[in-house]
Amino acid sequence: MILWLSSYGLANLSRFAPNFRSFVGGSIFPLSPDGSTLTPEERASRIAELEGQFRMTSEQAIAQAVAGIQPSDPLFVEWLVLLDRGDLV
């Protein structure tokens, strides 16, 4: 699930749905005016962080997702999206 909120909407989410806000808190990313979120260097760095955290390569992550045996972890979903494999989510 993706929520695309303005800063006002995020403030209201925090105010009126604090439990949901705490659930998604680590997955809130601000967008720049042109819609981009990460530079290619930042994207590669984040992918490297996730490879280290999950102790597998990106290719292994994709193979697990294709086989349907991926971890049920939001960070794993983030990883697949960063790899342009949101189709496997």
Tell me about this structure.
- This protein is mainly α and 89 residues long.
- The chain has a domain at 38-89.
- It has 5 helices and no strands.
- The protein has helices spanning 7-16, 18-24, 40-54, 58-67, 74-82.
- α1 packs across α2 (18-24).
- The longest helix is centred in the middle third of the chain and has 15 residues, at 40-54.
- The relative contact order is 0.10.
Jot down its keywords.
mainly alpha, single chain, 89 residues
Q: How many helices in DSSP terms?
A: 5
Outline = globular
* Radius of gyration from the alpha-carbon trace, in angstroms: 15 Å
Content-based structural category: mainly alpha
Share of residues in strands:
under 5%
Average pLDDT figure: 84
Listing every helix as H and every strand as E from the N terminus to the C terminus, the arrangement reads HHHHH
Largest sheet data:
none
Proportion of helical residues: 55-70%
Per DSSP E runs of 2 or more residues, the count of β-strands stands at: 0
Euclidean distance between termini CA atoms: 10 Å
Uncertain segments of ≥5 residues (pLDDT<50)? none
Short description:
Helices cover 57% and strands 0% of the residues.
Task: Chart the SSEs and their pairings.
Layout lengths: L6 H10 L1 H7 L15 H15 L3 H10 L6 H9 L7
Helix pairs in contact: 1-2, 3-5
